[in-house]
Amino acid sequence: MIRYFAIAACALVLTPFAARAQEAEQPPERLFLLGAGVYATTNPYASAKKKTQTGALPLFVYQTQRFTADLSGLAVTAWSSDHFKLEGRVAPRFQLVDPKDTRDFSFLQRDAGVDLGGRLSAAAGPATLSLEYLRDVTDQAKGQEVNLDLALSASPLEKLSVDVVAGVSWKDEKLATWLYGLRETEVGKLRAFEYGRTARAASGGVLVPSLGVQARYQVTDRLFVIAAAEVELFDNDITDSPLIAKDHASSGFVSVVRRF
Q: Could you give the CA distance from residue 131 to residue 118 in angstroms, rounded to a whole number?
């Protein structure tokens, strides 16, 4: 969800600035956005203490010609053209809800980690297709994932921009166990649900499709309201885990952001 909300902020806030820069034939050397918002997300874990978790998050974007820092991490542009961009990525990995928010699995450790990888994006008209690879380098999740996202943009009003994003994420066996399973070292062999290792858990990782919508409304020249919502769908490979009680996870986020 962190990755998704950061995409919403960048896609919907940076796009109008880029368009203005093209009109002026002089792209900005630096862009700094700062704000905060509130989120709500369902808890898909079994024996969850609360069905819905809420909280507050900062939202920031710092961008130069080749460097971007936001809630989803750091991105450095290695190569770009009119329609393509190749970036190196450093991304934090943490959950807004985790097993500690349950009655039966609060002993599980799901500490924050850091992923390294890259992203290739292609843009044509209102459509942007991105392919991202990330791998844990901090010995927390010990896994890797590949994310494919297609975003379609529209501006139904002068001050309103909307994106619809469809995506699918492949998570390998180690990352799937960290997110949705139970390791033998955590619960013993009888209760373990390790992808690729225990009989009940699938091999080859898992696929998680998602669908979301993002909206940006320009209040003033420097002030914006950003809203985003997403739903992730879980198939039997995930819901068969004793840790997971729902076949989906949904989340929403509303924030106010100012350009400096």
A: 8
